[in-house]
Design brief:
The protein contains four helices and no strands. The chain has 159 residues and is mainly α. The protein starts with 14 loop residues before the first helix and ends with a helix. This is Cell division protein FtsL.
Length: 159
């Protein structure tokens, strides 16, 4: 198997011939690339700075919001403490006023009521037969009222 190998024979030429070579000026194709790479790096840096600034701003805003909510919680807890105190006071007042002894004292002193004596108690005997009277309603009641009216009218007219 044969392979073709290319040699640059100018590298092995004597020094005098190497220096006589003609030089060509060729535009560097990497020059445009380096310019666009510089722009790309600058854009990346600006984007990173903007992202960092956004994160710092959001952190400051969230910290301010937490502080504000903490102050609101403190004020509401003080209001709740005041309301709990009022509730405890009113509960104790209600218990004191609904105490049986204080109710009896109020009834005798303010209302003029007298305590019940055992001799005032009367028992009712339930041995008697009880009857239930059911009144007519609806159409039966209307017919009864009309017939009663006609009878009373006839009695009035009759001599």
């Amino acid at each position: 198997m044969q392979t073709a190998t290319v040699y640059d024979l100018n590298t092995f030429a004597p020094r005098e011939e190497r220096s006589r070579r003609e030089l060509k000026v060729v535009k560097n194709p990497k020059a445009k690339r380096s310019l666009s790479l510089k722009r790309l790096r600058w854009i990346k840096a600006v984007a990173l700075a903007a992202l960092f600034l956004a994160l710092v701003c959001s952190l400051l805003y969230s910290q301010a919001k937490v502080t504000e909510l903490g102050a609101a919680i403190d004020s509401q807890s003080s209001v709740l403490d005041d309301l709990n105190s009022d509730y405890d006071y009113l509960t104790s007042q209600m218990k004191m006023k609904t105490n049986m002894k204080s109710v009896q004292e109020y009834a005798t002193s303010q209302l003029g009521l007298v305590a019940l004596d055992r001799s005032q108690i009367t028992y009712v005997d339930g041995d008697e037969e009880n009857t239930i009277v059911r009144y007519k309603t609806g159409l039966g009641q209307l017919a009864s009222d009309v017939s009663q009216g006609i009878l009373s009218f006839v009695e009035y007219i009759a001599p």
